[in-house]
Amino acid sequence: MSADELDAQQPSGPSATPQRSPRAQTPTGSGTWSYRNCADARAAGAAPIHRGQPGYGPHMDGDGDGIACEPYRGR
């Protein structure tokens, strides 16, 4: 089957393209952004996030070590 035949079988129109929701993000005031919370960062596959990486926000770094949304370690 040719590429043209495969293309002809694909649905067309606005519903043919899956709609992606934008990343959950919050402006930080310095032209950068961060995820709203760790759940959003984890859902995007971005956790853990280190200070300086896109999506990092100090509000997600509970212990202030520069690593946001790190895995929970039980004691």
Automatic annotation (TrEMBL):
This is Excalibur calcium-binding domain-containing protein. It comes from Sphingobium yanoikuyae. Residues 34-70 form the Excalibur calcium-binding domain. Residues 9-35 have a biased composition (Polar residues). Residues 1-75 are annotated as: Disordered.
